[in-house]
Amino acid sequence: MFKNYIVVIVFLCICSCTTDDTIQEPVANIFDGDVELFTQQEVDDFGAMLYTEITGNLILSAQFENPDPISNLSNLSTIEVVGGDLRLTNLFDVPNLDGLQNLTSVSGEVSLYGNSMISSLDTFSNINSTIQSLEIINFREIQSLQGLENISIASGGNLIIEGNDKLASLDAIQDGMPSVMETIRFKEFILDCGPFVDCLPIIPEPQPFTSLAFLSNVNEVDWLRLKGFQGTDLTGLENITSINRLSVWLAPNITNLQELSNVTNDILFLFVSQNDQLETLGGLENIPLVTGGFQAVANPVLTDFCAVQNSVTTLLEEDVEILLNAFNPTQQDIIDGNCSE
Protein backbone atom coordinates (compact mmCIF):
# COMPACT_ATOMS: atom_id res chain seq x y z
CA MET A 1 0.00 0.00 0.00
CA PHE A 2 2.81 2.43 0.91
CA LYS A 3 4.48 1.73 -2.43
CA ASN A 4 1.23 2.52 -4.22
CA TYR A 5 1.02 5.90 -2.45
CA ILE A 6 4.55 6.70 -3.57
CA VAL A 7 3.71 5.84 -7.17
CA VAL A 8 0.62 8.07 -7.10
CA ILE A 9 2.52 10.99 -5.55
CA VAL A 10 5.35 10.73 -8.08
CA PHE A 11 2.84 10.53 -10.94
CA LEU A 12 1.01 13.64 -9.72
CA CYS A 13 4.28 15.55 -9.35
CA ILE A 14 5.35 14.63 -12.87
CA CYS A 15 1.97 15.67 -14.29
CA SER A 16 2.06 18.93 -12.35
CA CYS A 17 5.56 19.79 -13.60
CA THR A 18 4.68 18.84 -17.15
CA THR A 19 1.56 21.01 -17.07
CA ASP A 20 3.47 23.98 -15.63
CA ASP A 21 6.18 23.65 -18.26
CA THR A 22 3.57 23.59 -21.01
CA ILE A 23 1.62 26.71 -20.02
CA GLN A 24 4.50 28.83 -18.78
CA GLU A 25 5.23 31.74 -21.15
CA PRO A 26 8.52 33.63 -21.21
CA VAL A 27 8.17 37.00 -19.54
CA ALA A 28 9.02 39.96 -21.79
CA ASN A 29 11.41 42.47 -20.28
CA ILE A 30 10.06 45.79 -21.55
CA PHE A 31 11.69 49.21 -21.38
CA ASP A 32 9.03 51.91 -21.49
CA GLY A 33 10.23 55.01 -23.36
CA ASP A 34 13.12 56.09 -25.58
CA VAL A 35 16.67 54.78 -25.31
CA GLU A 36 19.60 56.97 -26.36
CA LEU A 37 23.10 55.50 -26.07
CA PHE A 38 26.25 57.46 -26.87
CA THR A 39 29.16 55.46 -25.41
CA GLN A 40 30.24 51.83 -25.39
CA GLN A 41 29.77 51.72 -21.63
CA GLU A 42 26.18 52.87 -22.01
CA VAL A 43 25.58 50.16 -24.62
CA ASP A 44 27.06 47.50 -22.37
CA ASP A 45 25.16 48.67 -19.29
CA PHE A 46 21.86 48.78 -21.12
CA GLY A 47 22.51 45.39 -22.71
CA ALA A 48 23.16 43.87 -19.29
CA MET A 49 19.53 44.58 -18.35
CA LEU A 50 18.40 42.09 -21.02
CA TYR A 51 15.47 44.06 -22.35
CA THR A 52 13.53 42.35 -25.13
CA GLU A 53 11.36 45.32 -26.10
CA ILE A 54 11.69 49.11 -26.20
CA THR A 55 8.37 50.93 -26.52
CA GLY A 56 9.94 54.11 -27.92
CA ASN A 57 12.97 54.94 -30.05
CA LEU A 58 16.34 53.22 -29.98
CA ILE A 59 19.03 55.76 -30.84
CA LEU A 60 22.71 54.86 -31.05
CA SER A 61 24.88 57.84 -31.86
CA ALA A 62 28.43 59.17 -31.76
CA GLN A 63 29.37 62.28 -29.86
CA PHE A 64 32.10 64.76 -30.72
CA GLU A 65 35.40 64.00 -28.95
CA ASN A 66 33.91 60.98 -27.20
CA PRO A 67 36.67 59.02 -25.37
CA ASP A 68 34.48 55.90 -25.33
CA PRO A 69 32.83 55.67 -28.77
CA ILE A 70 30.39 52.88 -29.54
CA SER A 71 32.29 50.08 -31.26
CA ASN A 72 30.35 46.88 -30.51
CA LEU A 73 26.60 46.22 -30.46
CA SER A 74 26.73 42.57 -29.41
CA ASN A 75 25.34 43.21 -25.92
CA LEU A 76 22.04 44.39 -27.42
CA SER A 77 21.22 40.92 -28.73
CA THR A 78 18.17 40.40 -26.49
CA ILE A 79 16.23 43.26 -28.13
CA GLU A 80 13.47 41.97 -30.39
CA VAL A 81 11.01 44.86 -30.68
CA VAL A 82 11.46 48.62 -31.11
CA GLY A 83 8.15 50.45 -30.90
CA GLY A 84 9.50 53.70 -32.36
CA ASP A 85 12.46 54.61 -34.56
CA LEU A 86 15.71 52.72 -34.97
CA ARG A 87 18.45 55.29 -35.58
CA LEU A 88 22.15 54.57 -35.96
CA THR A 89 24.05 57.82 -36.43
CA ASN A 90 27.76 58.33 -37.13
CA LEU A 91 28.87 55.03 -35.60
CA PHE A 92 32.26 55.29 -37.27
CA ASP A 93 33.88 52.66 -35.00
CA VAL A 94 31.25 49.94 -35.47
CA PRO A 95 32.43 47.27 -37.96
CA ASN A 96 29.16 45.32 -38.20
CA LEU A 97 25.61 45.20 -36.88
CA ASP A 98 26.04 42.02 -34.83
CA GLY A 99 23.87 42.34 -31.76
CA LEU A 100 20.78 43.51 -33.62
CA GLN A 101 20.15 40.16 -35.31
CA ASN A 102 17.20 39.30 -33.06
CA LEU A 103 15.18 42.36 -34.00
CA THR A 104 11.86 41.24 -35.48
CA SER A 105 9.86 44.47 -35.44
CA VAL A 106 10.48 48.21 -35.81
CA SER A 107 7.40 50.44 -35.96
CA GLY A 108 8.90 53.86 -36.67
CA GLU A 109 11.59 54.81 -39.15
CA VAL A 110 14.84 52.98 -39.80
CA SER A 111 17.61 55.55 -40.17
CA LEU A 112 21.21 54.53 -40.85
CA TYR A 113 23.59 57.46 -41.13
CA GLY A 114 27.36 57.59 -41.39
CA ASN A 115 29.57 54.50 -41.41
CA SER A 116 32.55 53.42 -43.53
CA MET A 117 33.02 49.85 -42.25
CA ILE A 118 29.65 48.08 -42.22
CA SER A 119 29.36 46.18 -45.52
CA SER A 120 26.17 44.18 -44.99
CA LEU A 121 22.65 44.70 -43.68
CA ASP A 122 21.98 40.95 -43.40
CA THR A 123 21.73 41.36 -39.63
CA PHE A 124 18.28 42.89 -40.16
CA SER A 125 16.89 39.89 -42.04
CA ASN A 126 14.61 38.92 -39.13
CA ILE A 127 12.76 42.25 -39.14
CA ASN A 128 9.33 41.55 -40.58
CA SER A 129 7.30 44.69 -39.99
CA THR A 130 5.99 47.88 -41.56
CA ILE A 131 8.19 50.90 -40.92
CA GLN A 132 7.36 54.56 -41.52
CA SER A 133 10.47 55.49 -43.51
CA LEU A 134 13.81 54.09 -44.63
CA GLU A 135 16.84 56.37 -44.67
CA ILE A 136 20.33 55.11 -45.52
CA ILE A 137 22.88 57.88 -45.80
CA ASN A 138 26.68 57.67 -46.16
CA PHE A 139 26.93 53.94 -45.46
CA ARG A 140 29.91 53.75 -47.75
CA GLU A 141 30.62 50.00 -47.86
CA ILE A 142 27.19 48.46 -48.46
CA GLN A 143 26.66 47.12 -51.98
CA SER A 144 23.01 46.07 -51.70
CA LEU A 145 20.04 46.25 -49.36
CA GLN A 146 20.07 42.49 -48.84
CA GLY A 147 18.69 41.90 -45.37
CA LEU A 148 15.77 44.31 -45.73
CA GLU A 149 13.60 42.00 -47.86
CA ASN A 150 10.98 41.54 -45.15
CA ILE A 151 10.55 45.22 -44.33
CA SER A 152 7.62 47.17 -45.77
CA ILE A 153 7.39 50.97 -45.90
CA ALA A 154 4.06 52.41 -44.79
CA SER A 155 1.81 54.27 -47.22
CA GLY A 156 2.93 57.89 -47.34
CA GLY A 157 6.40 57.00 -46.07
CA ASN A 158 9.83 58.14 -47.24
CA LEU A 159 12.75 56.47 -48.99
CA ILE A 160 15.99 58.44 -48.75
CA ILE A 161 19.14 56.87 -50.20
CA GLU A 162 22.13 59.20 -50.24
CA GLY A 163 25.90 58.98 -50.31
CA ASN A 164 26.24 55.19 -50.42
CA ASP A 165 28.94 55.16 -53.07
CA LYS A 166 29.19 51.36 -53.41
CA LEU A 167 25.45 50.67 -53.43
CA ALA A 168 24.81 48.82 -56.70
CA SER A 169 21.29 47.46 -56.13
CA LEU A 170 18.13 48.34 -54.23
CA ASP A 171 16.13 45.39 -55.56
CA ALA A 172 15.81 43.79 -52.12
CA ILE A 173 13.20 46.35 -51.01
CA GLN A 174 10.97 46.16 -54.10
CA ASP A 175 8.22 44.04 -52.52
CA GLY A 176 8.03 46.36 -49.53
CA MET A 177 7.46 49.58 -51.47
CA PRO A 178 3.98 51.14 -51.08
CA SER A 179 1.89 52.62 -53.87
CA VAL A 180 1.82 56.08 -52.25
CA MET A 181 4.95 57.81 -50.94
CA GLU A 182 5.82 61.20 -49.51
CA THR A 183 9.45 61.39 -50.67
CA ILE A 184 11.81 59.36 -52.83
CA ARG A 185 15.23 60.97 -52.75
CA PHE A 186 18.62 59.94 -54.10
CA LYS A 187 21.87 61.88 -53.89
CA GLU A 188 25.56 61.20 -54.45
CA PHE A 189 28.15 61.09 -51.66
CA ILE A 190 29.57 64.46 -50.66
CA LEU A 191 31.93 64.77 -47.71
CA ASP A 192 30.03 65.94 -44.64
CA CYS A 193 31.89 68.98 -43.34
CA GLY A 194 30.89 68.64 -39.72
CA PRO A 195 32.58 68.28 -36.35
CA PHE A 196 33.73 64.72 -37.07
CA VAL A 197 35.72 65.36 -40.26
CA ASP A 198 37.94 68.02 -41.76
CA CYS A 199 36.37 69.55 -44.83
CA LEU A 200 38.57 69.06 -47.88
CA PRO A 201 37.78 69.58 -51.57
CA ILE A 202 36.25 66.37 -52.90
CA ILE A 203 34.63 65.20 -56.12
CA PRO A 204 31.11 63.87 -55.42
CA GLU A 205 30.93 60.06 -55.65
CA PRO A 206 27.72 58.83 -57.34
CA GLN A 207 25.77 55.87 -56.06
CA PRO A 208 26.41 53.17 -58.68
CA PHE A 209 22.96 51.56 -58.90
CA THR A 210 21.57 51.74 -62.44
CA SER A 211 18.04 50.37 -62.07
CA LEU A 212 14.86 51.89 -60.64
CA ALA A 213 12.87 48.69 -61.12
CA PHE A 214 12.43 48.46 -57.35
CA LEU A 215 10.03 51.44 -57.60
CA SER A 216 7.58 49.68 -59.91
CA ASN A 217 4.94 49.42 -57.14
CA VAL A 218 4.81 53.20 -56.66
CA ASN A 219 1.89 55.14 -58.18
CA GLU A 220 2.01 58.46 -56.32
CA VAL A 221 4.86 60.44 -54.78
CA ASP A 222 4.92 63.99 -53.47
CA TRP A 223 8.63 64.63 -54.13
CA LEU A 224 10.71 62.56 -56.53
CA ARG A 225 14.35 63.67 -56.48
CA LEU A 226 16.74 61.77 -58.72
CA LYS A 227 20.19 63.22 -58.17
CA GLY A 228 23.24 61.37 -59.41
CA PHE A 229 21.27 58.42 -60.81
CA GLN A 230 23.58 56.38 -63.08
CA GLY A 231 21.08 54.41 -65.17
CA THR A 232 20.44 54.92 -68.87
CA ASP A 233 16.66 55.24 -68.48
CA LEU A 234 13.97 55.60 -65.83
CA THR A 235 12.46 52.13 -66.18
CA GLY A 236 10.59 51.42 -62.97
CA LEU A 237 8.75 54.74 -62.91
CA GLU A 238 6.16 53.82 -65.56
CA ASN A 239 3.42 53.23 -62.99
CA ILE A 240 3.71 56.65 -61.38
CA THR A 241 0.67 58.77 -62.24
CA SER A 242 1.05 61.60 -59.73
CA ILE A 243 4.07 63.70 -58.70
CA ASN A 244 4.01 67.05 -56.92
CA ARG A 245 7.70 67.98 -57.17
CA LEU A 246 10.13 66.47 -59.68
CA SER A 247 13.91 66.94 -59.75
CA VAL A 248 16.20 65.17 -62.24
CA TRP A 249 19.72 66.31 -61.55
CA LEU A 250 23.20 65.04 -62.42
CA ALA A 251 21.83 61.93 -64.14
CA PRO A 252 24.54 61.65 -66.81
CA ASN A 253 23.19 58.79 -68.93
CA ILE A 254 19.48 59.43 -69.53
CA THR A 255 18.41 60.92 -72.88
CA ASN A 256 14.69 61.50 -72.23
CA LEU A 257 11.97 61.21 -69.58
CA GLN A 258 9.63 58.84 -71.42
CA GLU A 259 9.02 56.62 -68.40
CA LEU A 260 7.15 59.53 -66.76
CA SER A 261 4.55 59.72 -69.51
CA ASN A 262 1.80 58.41 -67.22
CA VAL A 263 2.07 61.40 -64.87
CA THR A 264 -1.16 63.32 -65.46
CA ASN A 265 -1.49 65.74 -62.53
CA ASP A 266 -0.45 69.37 -62.13
CA ILE A 267 3.11 69.63 -60.79
CA LEU A 268 4.20 72.29 -58.34
CA PHE A 269 7.86 72.35 -59.31
CA LEU A 270 9.92 70.88 -62.16
CA PHE A 271 13.72 71.00 -62.02
CA VAL A 272 16.04 69.50 -64.67
CA SER A 273 19.75 70.25 -64.37
CA GLN A 274 23.21 69.03 -65.36
CA ASN A 275 22.08 65.90 -67.19
CA ASP A 276 24.86 65.33 -69.72
CA GLN A 277 22.93 63.25 -72.28
CA LEU A 278 19.41 64.61 -71.86
CA GLU A 279 18.23 65.70 -75.31
CA THR A 280 14.50 66.16 -74.78
CA LEU A 281 11.86 66.58 -72.09
CA GLY A 282 9.79 63.99 -73.95
CA GLY A 283 7.70 62.06 -71.43
CA LEU A 284 6.28 65.12 -69.67
CA GLU A 285 3.60 65.86 -72.30
CA ASN A 286 0.72 64.69 -70.12
CA ILE A 287 1.40 67.06 -67.23
CA PRO A 288 -1.41 69.65 -67.44
CA LEU A 289 0.34 72.50 -65.62
CA VAL A 290 3.51 73.37 -63.75
CA THR A 291 2.14 75.73 -61.12
CA GLY A 292 5.10 76.84 -59.00
CA GLY A 293 8.32 76.91 -61.01
CA PHE A 294 10.26 75.43 -63.93
CA GLN A 295 14.04 75.32 -64.20
CA ALA A 296 16.14 73.74 -66.94
CA VAL A 297 19.77 74.59 -66.35
CA ALA A 298 23.11 73.34 -67.70
CA ASN A 299 21.88 70.38 -69.73
CA PRO A 300 24.52 70.52 -72.48
CA VAL A 301 22.62 68.66 -75.25
CA LEU A 302 19.03 69.57 -74.35
CA THR A 303 17.33 71.03 -77.44
CA ASP A 304 13.68 69.95 -77.19
CA PHE A 305 11.28 71.59 -74.71
CA CYS A 306 8.07 70.86 -76.60
CA ALA A 307 6.81 68.39 -73.98
CA VAL A 308 6.14 71.31 -71.60
CA GLN A 309 4.59 73.63 -74.19
CA ASN A 310 1.16 73.49 -72.55
CA SER A 311 2.23 73.09 -68.94
CA VAL A 312 4.26 76.31 -68.54
CA THR A 313 1.57 78.66 -69.83
CA THR A 314 0.40 80.01 -66.46
CA LEU A 315 3.78 80.47 -64.78
CA LEU A 316 5.05 83.95 -64.01
CA GLU A 317 8.13 84.97 -65.97
CA GLU A 318 10.26 85.04 -62.81
CA ASP A 319 9.29 81.44 -62.06
CA VAL A 320 10.90 80.15 -65.27
CA GLU A 321 14.68 79.73 -65.61
CA ILE A 322 16.16 78.28 -68.80
CA LEU A 323 19.88 78.75 -69.36
CA LEU A 324 23.16 77.04 -70.21
CA ASN A 325 21.44 74.34 -72.26
CA ALA A 326 22.20 73.55 -75.91
CA PHE A 327 19.01 75.48 -76.73
CA ASN A 328 17.55 78.15 -74.45
CA PRO A 329 14.10 79.29 -75.55
CA THR A 330 12.12 81.81 -73.57
CA GLN A 331 8.89 80.83 -71.87
CA GLN A 332 6.97 82.60 -74.63
CA ASP A 333 8.99 80.78 -77.31
CA ILE A 334 7.92 77.46 -75.82
CA ILE A 335 4.28 78.51 -75.62
CA ASP A 336 4.37 79.72 -79.23
CA GLY A 337 5.76 76.41 -80.46
CA ASN A 338 9.34 77.55 -80.96
CA CYS A 339 10.31 74.88 -78.50
CA SER A 340 13.00 72.81 -80.21
CA GLU A 341 16.07 73.25 -82.32
From TrEMBL:
Q: Output the InterPro entries linked to this UniProt entry.
A: CWI-Assembly_Regulator (IPR051648), Rcpt_L-dom_sf (IPR036941)
Q: Name one GO cellular component term.
A: cell envelope
Instruction: Give the source's domain of life in one word.
Output: Bacteria
* Record keywords: Cell wall, Glycoprotein, Secreted, Signal
| Subcellular localization | Secreted, Cell wall
Q: What is its main location?
A: secreted
**What is the name of the protein in this document?**
Receptor L domain-containing protein
| Organism, as annotated | Dokdonia pacifica
Where is the organism placed in the taxonomic lineage, from the top? Bacteria, Pseudomonadati, Bacteroidota, Flavobacteriia, Flavobacteriales
